[in-house]
Design a protein that fits this description.
single chain; 371 residues; mainly beta; 18 strands
């Protein structure tokens, strides 16, 4: 499941309009002193496809107040230098997308020993229709077409304006892993073994500020609500909150494999929460004739990690190290657009016996049109 809200103030305006509409629909439509119905503006909005700034719309006092508040918020939190970034001029978007993702877990031990596994490539596909910042759609589990009944869930929330961005993601999966390296088993060479005794859940909240927010548009690269006209980059700073819970039970492995397990305990649980300072850099490259846009955003987080009581290592205070990289390529042609977006999130866990690196990677392909 994916929910993307690119500009929060527009969402607020839209909800308030619906609230006002509901009250207007339940009231008696009494003409004002100029002879206009108090609900005429609702019909005008529908007729012009919700072009809220149309000067011919007759707004009563409360909707006019809401529009003025929205305009103030839009100027304050979503304004750019017009030589660098402009709006698309269209409020609606129709998109078809495919979303593929995988997880990997790697543990590094002394004497160059390691334990590695990764999930199958999970695939979803679906369609979305968007009005301004509000998107409605559905993604289908494509793994069922290949008779892979995977137990997994994803949820994403994204709120981006010119000045800052807030992102929330939650991912969980049961089984579906492939063990590829196990200490010195198979003479230390990679192999493939289906391994389902793994439960993983991860939650991340990121909030970060764009310093060069007058010239750089993150929305142009990832939500297609703006056009970036000239190349620009920005420093980024913010905060990262994360929780990860991973349970692995190797006791069911064949004896000849279990003998090579580098862990002291065949059943292991990582459960920790992080709070960290997030910093990095993002850059948009505009390729002539301004149809292509490339983005690279890289961030690192450093802070405090607290393991919880159900973790195998018990309660401990550690250093949190998290990494985030995203890439986007966008092609715009009049009302049409297409995009490929890749994201990588990594997390490091250190103790006296090993280093655990956990990662989540995804690739999204999108085609759509504005209208």
């Amino acid at each position: 499941m994916q929910l993307k809200l690119s500009i929060f103030l527009r969402h607020v305006f839209f909800c308030l309009v619906l609230f006002a509409s509901a009250h207007g629909a339940g009231a008696v439509c009494v003409p004002d002193s100029a002879g206009h119905s108090s609900t005429r503006w609702i019909r005008q909005l529908i007729d012009n496809r919700f072009a809220i700034h149309d000067s011919t719309i007759y707004y009563p006092a409360f909707p006019r107040f809401v529009l003025n508040v929205y305009n103030w918020g839009d100027r304050t939190f979503n304004s750019y230098e017009k030589d660098y970034v402009v709006g698309t001029g269209m409020n609606w978007k129709l998109q078809a997308k495919t979303y593929g993702w995988l997880e990997s877990q790697t543990m590094f031990f002394p004497k160059n020993s390691r334990l590695s596994m990764h999930s199958n490539l999970f695939m979803d596909a679906g369609a979305y229709i968007s009005f301004m910042a509000v998107s409605v759609g559905y993604m289908w589990n494509m793994d069922k077409l290949f008779d892979r009944d995977t137990k997994r869930r994803t949820f994403n929330f994204d709120f981006t304006c010119s000045r800052f961005s807030i992102n929330y993601s939650k991912v969980s999966s049961e089984g579906g892993m492939i063990l590829t390296h196990l200490g010195d088993y198979n003479d230390g060479r990679d192999f493939r073994y289906d391994f389902d005794a793994v439960d993983i859940s991860a939650t991340n909240i990121d909030a970060y500020y764009f310093f060069n927010n007058r010239r750089y548009s993150h929305a142009a690269a990832y939500s297609f609500s703006k056009y970036q006209l000239r190349t620009a980059g920005t420093a980024i700073v913010g905060i990262n909150l994360a929780e990860q819970n991973i349970s692995m039970d190797f006791s069911g492995l064949p004896p000849d494999m279990l003998n090579y397990l580098p862990l002291d305990n065949p059943s292991y649980t990582f459960h920790h929460r992080d709070i960290a300072v997030l910093g990095g850099y993002g850059r948009n490259w505009v390729l002539k004739p301004r149809r292509w846009l490339l983005n690279l955003t890289a961030m690192g987080a450093l802070g405090y990690k607290r393991t919880l009581e159900n973790a195998t290592d018990g309660k401990r205070n550690l250093i949190a190290n998290n990494y985030k990289v995203s890439l986007s390529a966008v092609y715009n042609h009049r009302k049409l657009f297409a995009s490929a977006q890749a994201r990588f999130n990594g997390s490091l866990y250190f103790n006296s016996s090993f280093t655990h690196f956990s990662s989540f990677s995804s690739l999204t392909l999108i085609v759509g049109m504005r209208f």
